[in-house]
Amino acid sequence: MLKQLDKNFKASGLPSNFTLDQAGQLLQKNYNAIELSKDDFKDLQNDPDAKYDHIAKCYKIMDTKLLYSIYTQDEKQDLSEMILYLNSLVNDNTGASEKSESELIWKDIQEGRRINIVLESVDNNSISSFTMQGLSQKILNDLIILKGIPNEYCVLGNPHYEYYLNVLHNAGKI
Predict the structure, then answer these.
(1) Cβ-defined contacts of 47-53 (< 8 Å, 24+)
(2) Which helix (H) or strand (E) holds 56?
(3) C-alpha span between 105 and 131 (Å, rounded)
């Protein structure tokens, strides 16, 4: 099967990576993503997996109708359980003070009403890494495809390439 996926990918004409602008256009078109300022993600300065200096583009997706339409059954189940859990915490803290903006954003993320996407770029052209805050296998697959894979990795036997081929296949691209 991998040989066929390799053949399909090489015949598809798909680029092995996308520019930041192409990624932004796709996120805006497919998910109604709204571009945000890097300043909205200052908390990533403390994230050991994120490289704050390389953050190039930031987006939020808050179209709840669209989000719920792309969630898998497992994701919907996980989100339902999270909503129940978070609501039980609210009921236990009847005297809790007003929530900060950051807490409200994280509540929206945890309950499936928002996904944040942060794209990093070393060369200010292509995606070198990304951070996704929220839960969606479909969006994660799209981000993996948009990040792409270096041409020199595109050899059967390379586990990164084989994973990439499977993501492309599962997303219906090849």
Answers:
(1) 47/131, 49/131, 50/118, 50/120, 50/129, 50/131, 51/120, 51/129
(2) strand 55-61
(3) 16
What are the residues facing 133 on neighbouring strands? 116
How far is residue 108 from each of residues 12, 73, 115, 150, measured CA to CA in Å?
A: 38, 19, 8, 35
d(CA 150, CA 58): 23
CB-based contact 133:116 (threshold 8 Å): yes
At 25-65, the pLDDT tens digits run: 999 999 999 999 999 999 899 888 899 999 999 999 999 99
* pLDDT tens track for 81-101: 888 887 777 655 544 456 788
Q: Give me the residue label for tokens 């669209």.
A: 66
Contact criterion met (CB below 8 Å) for 126 and 18: yes
Q: The whole model's pTM is what? A: 0.88
Q: Is 48 exposed, middle or buried (0-12, 13-18, 19+ CB in 10 A)?
A: exposed
